[in-house]
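Journal club prep — side note

Before the paper discussion, L.F. wants everyone to see what a predicted structure for a comparable chain looks like in token form. Sequence:
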Amino acid sequence: MLLVDPAKKISFNRYISDGDLVIVYERHDNMKAVKVCKDSVLQNRFGVFKHSDWIGRPFGSKVFSNKGGFVYLLAPTPELWTLVLSHRTQILYLADISFVIMYLEIVPGCLVLESGTGSGSLTTSLARAVAPTGHVYTFDFHEQRAVSAREDFERTGLKSLVTVGVRDIQGEGFPDDFCGKADSVFLDLPQPWLAVPSVGKMLKQDGILCSFSPCIEQVQRCCETLRANFTDIRTFEVLLRTYEVREGKMESCQADESGSTGSLPCKRRQRSSEGSNAKEVSGSPTIMARPSAEARGHTGYLTFARLRCLS
């Protein structure tokens, strides 16, 4: 995570301090966010870890418990924060987030509008993309979700880059203060077509809109509305396939006089050098790869459109 000071300068301090947020990594599917406090301890199946032992260490350190067990202390990057944050709503994951940031052409200094905030997964990555001089204004109609999101952005050191507002964008549109100022807009709404007229007023000429919808019927209706003032309308579905790559052993097999093998699988068929004696082919370590059983399927459709230039 990029830490930004009040002067909006990126900080490269990579050492853990009292009060910092760290991601405690046990394994790839078991991580948690912990606020460092010198008088506190973390207790898990590996033993007791004193926070005081963490202070002054660089992020990425391997620390040990009283029993000799260990965990890793990682920086709360947007990629890791997405995996450990509290799910107040359904969230976007890495494949969709990276695609959105690239296609919206978000760079440092951009002004980005977002609705709705939800759990703040995308917002966190947007903030890093616009740092250190840009800003993200995100809105949610649910007041308690907005309050929780503000607290999360403070914990992750992004409060100078993100402003959270409570507003029904479908019914009221974006505030007039942003007319003609937004470089890009992201919508995650059940009826995004209701917000499209407001988005057209907020975007700079040639600015880009992205709308996330889980159902294709929402996409169809949104595209109908976009055709009035937008061009280059495209819809994508991002499917990520994860592979497991690990070392394993092939089962052994036997070759008979004719060189044929039994029913057990083996890496290769092998005859004895003399062609008369049966010889056992021992299993040997090999690297095997297969699709992960936990691969995510459909999350939603991403519709992009560019505001048509008037000139």
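L.F.'s comment for the group: The CA atoms of residues 176 and 273 lie 85 Å apart. Keep this in mind when we get to the figures.
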